[in-house]
Design goal:
- This protein has 595 residues and is α/β, with parallel strands linked by helices.
- It folds into two domains: 2-177, Rossmann fold (3-Layer(aba) Sandwich), CATH 3.40.50.1070; 181-590, Alpha-Beta Barrel (L-fucose Isomerase, Chain A, domain 3).
- 37% of the residues lie in helices and 19% in strands.
- The chain contains 20 helices and 23 strands.
- The strands form six sheets. It has a six-stranded antiparallel barrel with strand order 13-14-21-20-19-22.
- A hairpin with a 2-residue loop joins strand 10 and strand 11.
- Helix 2 crosses helix 6 and helix 10 crosses helix 13.
- 51% of the residues are buried.
- The protein binds L-Fuculose open form and manganese (II) ion.
- Residues 307, 342, 366, 397-398, 444, 531 line the site of L-Fuculose open form.
- This is L-fucose isomerase.
- Keywords: Isomerase.
- It is an enzyme of class 5 (isomerase).
- Its EC number is 5.3.1.25.
Length: 595
């Protein structure tokens, strides 16, 4: 029930615009069917391939008629506005009149597929209209099939499919962010700059709003019983059955009594319910007489300050953050909520990017230690090998990493992190079984609580990313594709015990290119822009780059092969030999999407 409530506003749709040569008495008539067929096929392709965050198929809206001139362009725009279209794809097999048929909505991502045939000049239209987009300052993605197709061939070639998908995936992410909130629960944690929420960034670059609640709201809701007590009982019983408590790593004098720990469990379960209700609301609260609280904050992501005021006195937020970020809880398998620990809103947004592109849960972590092969050898006697041979980065933070990060979901025997609709109950159970809940380090967390402890399985392709803000420049995105790696148990133990072994660990190694910030693993660590990073499942750097270009966020570091990079056509008009510089120039030239 809470899941249905969460997504009740529905999802943005993809608008499809068949444009056509407007000349009647023969030309237009001969093209109508082919053009509309292209539109229908693209719509069918999207709806059968792409999913919304709840797992339902993405919907497309096709203009009522082919668009041969401005009257039909404007009729399509009106239809799109009514139907919640969040991105637009123009398709055509022929010459049409560029500025008369183009979609002029500068606030949504735009793409144009010009059919590569030669009976009719679709590619000429593509070039003409993209010149129009450049001139008018609306960056649009061009899709031009590599090989000539016959006019009668209604298939979508593989390379065109890839570009359509790359555009639509990122375009949908842009559209899903728009109009939502980031909810700060508390404010700045331990002076972490990412938790100084920058409203201009959220508003201008993401189209989002910032909401804030003081952490005292948790106390009020606990004391005044502003949560669904039936759900609380269910959640607590589930925790007792599935969340096994791990050994207490505190010195005896720092350990809490059994009674105090049991009380902490009650508190952390309530915190999880309350944080979720704060984010998205809960219709049960209205039935219980709390109509205002039932509304929530329309938050697609949130952050919890925790340290220090809360955690110096109350149990920490680790259970709440880890469970909400996972793809399952006491209500079963469901889409993850996005909650940033330490209210690091910039990591929170990076998690959102990863989540909206992959629909899988995210691993939030401190980028804690670069372990060179020599240092590992000195400390453990072990020689790093395989993918880890050049060195590894220890990703570890209390809270926030989704339990999916244990790597207990599988595909063809390999560990993966799946969208929630592909996860089986056994896989969810295995993630829980691989996680122990360790009494929090009371040196750091005087109020106690429980930290999730798991070790990520090696062999998963992952992408680490992070947004940083630079005064005078704005946001920049950094991306490092790589792999999770396994270490022999004794080696992991020796390295882990030098940190806080009650927290989840992921051993990560980036793919090196031999150049720039990817010359060595050390360089990747050395160029990381902040204390935190996000791991998303898969090599999704190219998608992140496309998404960043839509939002005009330049990418300051990545190891994505050049042939996979897809940005608006006009990026090339800012320079073609120095692509990184061209990206910066284009982002600066056009400025944020919602300025
Ligand atoms: C317990 C500590 O304060 C940690 O939370 C700290 O190392 C961080 O995570 C900093 O990002
Ligand atoms: Mn941290």
């Amino acid at each position: 029930m809470i899941e249905q409530y969460r997504w009740q506003g529905g999802f943005p749709k993809i608008g499809i615009r068949p444009t056509i040569d407007g000349r009647r008495r023969g030309v237009r008539e001969s093209l109508e069917e082919k053009t509309m067929t292209m539109a229908r096929n693209v719509a069918e392709f999207f709806s059968s391939t792409l999913r919304n965050p709840d797992g339902s198929p993405v919907e497309c809206v096709i203009a009522d008629t082919c668009i041969g001139g401005v009257a039909e362009a404007s009729a399509a725009a009106k239809k799109f506005a009514k139907e919640n279209v969040g991105l637009s794809v123009t398709v055509t097999p022929c010459w049409c009149y560029g500025t008369e048929t183009m979609d002029m909505d500068a606030s949504i991502p735009q793409a144009v597929w010009g059919f590569n045939g030669t009976e009719r000049p679709g590619a000429v239209y593509l070039a003409a209209v993209l010149a129009g987009y450049a001139q008018k300052g609306i960056p649009a993605f061009g899709i031009y099939g590599h090989d000539v197709q016959d006019l009668a061939d209604n298939s979508i070639p593989q390379d065109v499919q890839e570009k359509l998908l790359a555009f639509a995936k990122s375009g949908l992410a842009v559209a899903n962010l728009r109009g939502k909130s980031y909810l700060s629960m508390g404010s700045v944690s331990m002076g972490i700059a990412g938790s100084v929420v920058n409203e201009t960034f959220f508003q201008d670059y993401l189209g989002m709003r910032n909401e804030y609640v003081d952490m005292s709201e948790f106390v009020r809701r606990m004391d005044e019983v502003i949560y669904d007590t039936a759900e609380y009982e269910k959640a607590l019983a589930w925790v007792k059955e599935y969340c096994k408590e791990g050994p207490d790593n505190n010195e005896p004098e720092g350990q809490k009594s059994r009674e105090a720990k049991d009380k902490d469990w009650e508190t952390v379960v309530k915190m999880a319910l309350i944080a979720r209700d704060l984010m998205i609301g809960n219709p049960r609260l209205a039935e219980l007489g709390f109509e205002e609280e039932a509304n929530g904050h329309n938050a697609i992501a949130s952050g919890f300050q925790g340290q220090r005021q809360w955690t110096d006195h109350f149990p920490n937020g680790d259970f709440m953050e880890a469970m909400l970020n996972s793809s399952f809880d006491w209500n079963g398998i469901r889409s993850p909520y996005i909650v940033a620990t330490e209210n690091d809103s910039l990591n929170g947004v990076t998690m959102l990017f990863g989540y909206l592109l992959t629909h899988s849960a995210q691993i939030f972590a401190d980028v804690r230690t670069y372990w060179s092969p020599d240092a590992v050898k000195r400390v453990t006697g072990y020689t790093l090998e395989g993918k880890a041979a050049e060195g590894i980065i220890h990703l570890i933070n209390s809270g926030a990493a989704a339990l999916d990060g244990s790597g207990e979901q599988t595909q063809n025997g390999q560990p993966v992190m799946k969208p929630h609709w592909e996860i089986t109950q056994d896989e969810a159970d295995n993630c829980l079984a691989a996680t122990s809940w360790r009494p929090a380090s009371t040196g750091y967390f005087r109020g106690g609580g429980f930290s999730s402890d798991f070790l990520t399985k090696g062999g998963m392709p992952v992408t680490m990313a992070r947004i940083n803000l630079v005064k005078g420049l704005g946001p920049v995105l950094q991306i490092a594709e790589g792999y999770t790696v396994d270490l022999p148990e004794a080696v992991h133990d020796a390295l882990d015990k030098r940190t806080d072994p009650t927290w989840p660990t992921t051993w990560f190694t980036p793919v090196l290119t031999g150049e720039g910030s990817f010359k060595t693993v050390y360089d990747v660590m050395d160029n990381w822009g902040a204390n935190h990073g996000v791991l998303s499942y898969g090599h999704v750097g190219a998608d992140l780059i496309t998404l960043a270009s839509m939002l005009r966020i330049p990418v300051n570091m990545h190891n994505v092969p050049e042939e996979k990079i897809y940005r608006p056509k006009v990026w090339g008009l800012h320079g073609t030999s120095d692509k990184e510089g061209a990206d910066y120039r284009a982002c600066q030239n056009f400025g944020p999407l919602y300025k």
